Structure formats: C-alpha cells, structure tokens
Amino acid sequence: MANILDDLPPRAALAEIARDFxxxxxxxxxxGNLSARADDEHFWITASGKPxxxxxxxxxxxxxxxxxxxxERVRPENKPSAETAIHRVLYARFPEARACLHGHIVEAAxxxxxxxxxxxxxxxxxxxxxxxxxxxQQNPKVDLPLFANHLDVAKIAADxxxxxxxxxxxxxxxxxxxxxxTVWGASLQDAYNRxxxxxxxxxxxxxxxxxxx
Length: 213
Hints:
This protein has 213 residues and is an alpha+beta fold.
C-alpha cells in the first residue's frame, strides 16, 4: 500500500505538507517552497508570496524542467517561487527525484552560521537517524552540502548545479547559509521523511554544540 502522501494528487499532498511544516515552525509566513513532479518533464511548485499554513491546490504553478518555463497557472496572478531555479536544477540533475521540499529551520541556520567561512559541508552526526538517508556504514562520515546565500537565487542554483555536476552528494539534501535546507526524494513521502530526518540531525547537532559551548 502506498503511503498517505503518495495516495494524494501532488498538489493536494504539497498543500498538506505546507500546513504541517507551517505548524512546526519550518515555513513561517510565506517562507519556503515545495514541489513535486507532474511527469518527467514538468513539476508543480508553490506560488510566491502565499501563506504556507493556508495553501490549497490552486496555489501552484506547472513549470518545465528543461527551461523553467511556466506552462500552467491555476490562478492568473500566481508567480513562481523565487527558488524555482533551485528545484529545476535538482530535477534536471537527479531524474529519480520526484519531490523537493525547502523550509526554514532555526537550528539549521544556527549550525550553518557556526561553520567556517570557507566550509562547503556540514558534518552530520553519526547517529542512528542518519539511516533515514540510506547511510548504513558504521560511524559514517557524511557531509551535508553547504552553499553560500545570494540575493540572486539563480546564482545559488548555478553553484548547486556546478558542484553536483562534479560529484553526487552523499545525502539527498543541501543547506544554504542564513537560509535553509532543501531535501529531495524518490516520492513525496520519501522527501517528507527525509526532511524530518534532516531536521532531527541538525537539531541534534545544534544542541550538541550548544552543550560544548
């Protein structure tokens, strides 16, 4: 039996995730964005400026992976999320990705802030929960890709594409400094589960570092 999120139409599932993330404080106000493939060539993504705790199935746009062209607006006034370029890069780079979720987590921002200025990754704690990313080694050394934040989101997307073209990340996730994590998965439920796992790992890391002072 499919998991509940995968039983729903993509836009209904994304609206459900948005309400859940908003309630957890991961998508305050209009922050964050969510997407899911409609087919191999297109994906639905949240419209810009919409309160994430009140999304419905009309608050999405259909975007073409190849060039980022908006091919369907359910509401004429809908504009694509600013992070559409990042979602497009991830779908183009990873054909197996079927959903992509981006939120804003306090602990994630704090951990990234404490990383060295030239750091390109955050070492994730080698605890049981890392298995949620299919990491099965004993005491694994796994880095979450870390990227600089830019006002021009297209620059962030280009940085992601350039790095991932050279090497595939160890986890299906990344972090942008002073911004937030993005997680993708083989299904909506998979992406949702992995986002929860990453939040746990980063919260653990933030609390462990706070205890050390």
